[in-house]
Amino acid sequence: MFYLFNKSYTFKKIIQNKKKLSNIFAFSIFDIVISGIYLGLFLIIAYLVKMAMPARFNIAFELPFYIFLGITLNWFKGSFVALIFDITKTALTSNLFIWTPEYGLVPPVIAILAALFFKLVYQKDLWLLIPTVIFILAIIFIFFYYFSLNSQQISRVPVAWRSTFDKITILSLIGSISLFISIAAIILFILYYKTKEQKWKIAFLSLMILAILFIIFRWFWHPIAFIKYYNRYINRSGNDRLINNFFFYYLSPIILKSAFSLPIYTFCLVSTIPLINYLNYRHNYQSRLGY
């Protein structure tokens, strides 16, 4: 009797482990369809941005796509598809041979971090404090760090932006972006607190994920990656640009563009991810059943 019970228990564990592994590594029909639709949209936007938008207005539209893939497909599938997105975009819009790890490894890392943060949706509400506190501390640090800089450091930007920036402008932009995200987050959290509907919790967490990863990869990492890229492929003077000297040179225009792009990304992610998760639950039978 004990042998039969133990054998039955072992069989159930095998089935459960198979289902977990299938959900992580195997692509369902729903996953493939969603990935294909967004790859098509991604490449269309990439082509239009390349052909119609001046380089100075580069808005890094890719980031919300990678976040979406991580949240929707989980960490492994999301990071794999995000890498495919990046390689395909590079082949379409530039030269695949100038692919660099500073840029190329960012998409899968964003997808992995987004997937890990999104697991907080299934935890107690108290866990929502983690991304909230991270965002608040990051914004406070950036604001006071810029506040401590002298005006000459902040005003040192590319020629195309030289008449735009001063210390007050940058601090105002950081404050405006922080205020927008805070108001949106408070509204979403109140809606969740009042209704206890999962879609509002998903929307709130999606906003926090976007804000945190935007700060990390757009505000902090992008200037560093571009300086390395510039020294490797563009610079012909023989004098490499140093990160210490050129970090804010590239960061200040990014903050200005963030004031316009971040609200658009917020609307797209907050409105899309709850819907896709609902459709995933309703129609992704292969993933739910584990075959």
UniProtKB/TrEMBL annotation:
Record has Membrane as a keyword: yes
Taxonomic superkingdom: Bacteria
Keywords, comma-separated and alphabetical: Membrane, Transmembrane, Transmembrane helix
TM regions (residue ranges): 21-45, 65-85, 97-120, 126-147, 168-190, 202-221, 242-258
Keyword Transferase annotated: no
Identification of the protein by name: ECF transporter S component
Organism of origin: Mesomycoplasma bovoculi M165/69
